[in-house]
Amino acid sequence: MFEDLKAPEADKILRLMAMFAADPRPGKVDLGVGVYRDPQGQTPVMEAVRRAETIIAARQRTKSYVGLAGDPAFADALRRLILGDAVPAERVATCATPGGTGAVRQALEMVQRITPDATIWVPTPTWVNHHAIIDHLGQKSRAYRYYDAADGTLDREGMLADLAQARAGDIVLLHGCCHNPTGADLQPDDWRAVGDVLEQTGAIPFIDIAYLGFADGLEADAFGTRHLAERLSEVLIAASCSKNFGLYRERVGLCMAITSGPGPRAAAAGLMAHLNRQSYAFPPDHGARVVQVILDDRELRGMWEDELSLMRETMNTNRAAFAEALRAETGSDRFGFLAGQRGMFSLIGATPAQVETLREDHGIYVVGDGRLNVAGLTKDTIPGVARAVARVLG
Ligand code: LMR
């Protein structure tokens, strides 16, 4: 059975992780996979998480199954964090998933079940795994313009013109905040304009929100998701707690479907639970429970919000310092856009050959499309990385 098998190639992020792990050079710098690092270069367990785990260890009396959709208290807490009061709970079907990727997969599987002919509109560029999952499910997709590489900003006109071609029932994939890989986000006016196009076309937004709290704060980062939730009768959402709770390996995600009312909500919830059953039966519980304990405890929540703010400030400080170091190295404002973008990622505009030179000659690991994780920089590494980028990108 496996004699003639050719293993599928790992994607560019996973390949880079493996190359970095195999590199023996002590001064190597990992600016690849999306993992937050503090100013000391560590990815620590958040203190609020540690405390919640202590509480859970003391209180938990069983590890028996919870339910196909996970713990409703977790779903409720995360729904409220993301959606606030934008939409009544009776309209929102939820299902815990293994990580945000699990939620993306569940949402797209639902689409495939219900409307197999729908086209999934995908921003150019987007997270590599979005394409991989859509292709794996055999769904139709179309690219829409999103990013203006010349000045590092949103291509608003291109995006709106392309999305105007969507048909009723098509799915429009949007990044809730901290666009991966560009760091170029929709501003409130852009979200309003997207809402207009969605209303006109009848296409359904699918919001992947994996970095809530990493851009400008919990409320500001939820604006776009809440805005569309308030305006439209149907919205799909894939949420992740990997980054903002630092729970990467625990795999904490939530798939949400905003529906027109209680009947469709019950049907969507039933389909989600069914899809969980077919894939892995019960979703993981530990990380989800940690999130729920934190969000529902005033003191722990305050502690988590403070830690999250610190992470956000570190990333934004790194952005400003890196842009400044590049300005000094290049004598130009060519990389000035880095300071204004948000989240972990930006595209530095490197060709694949330049990415290779950065890796081979300087031990600096960025993803093949030139995506750089600003959260991987520290005060100590910024000058060397800026020098290398300026030299290699000429
Ligand atoms: C990334 O984009 O680097 C992260 O979301 C990790 C991943 O799974 O690719």
Automatic annotation (TrEMBL):
Signal peptide per UniProt: none
Needed cofactors: pyridoxal 5'-phosphate
Domain Aminotransferase class I/classII large: 27-388
GO MF annotation terms: identical protein binding; L-aspartate:2-oxoglutarate aminotransferase activity; L-tyrosine-2-oxoglutarate transaminase activity; pyridoxal phosphate binding
GO BP: any one term: L-phenylalanine biosynthetic process from chorismate via phenylpyruvate
Pfam families documented for this protein: Aminotran_1_2
A GO CC term attached to the entry: cytosol
Keywords for this protein: Aminotransferase, Pyridoxal phosphate, Transferase
PANTHER family hit by this protein: ASPARTATE AMINOTRANSFERASE, ASPARTATE AMINOTRANSFERASE, MITOCHONDRIAL
Entry-linked NCBIfam families: PRK09257.1 (NF006719)
Subunit structure comment from the entry: Homodimer.
Name of the protein in question: Aspartate/tyrosine/aromatic aminotransferase
Organism the protein comes from: Gymnodinialimonas ceratoperidinii
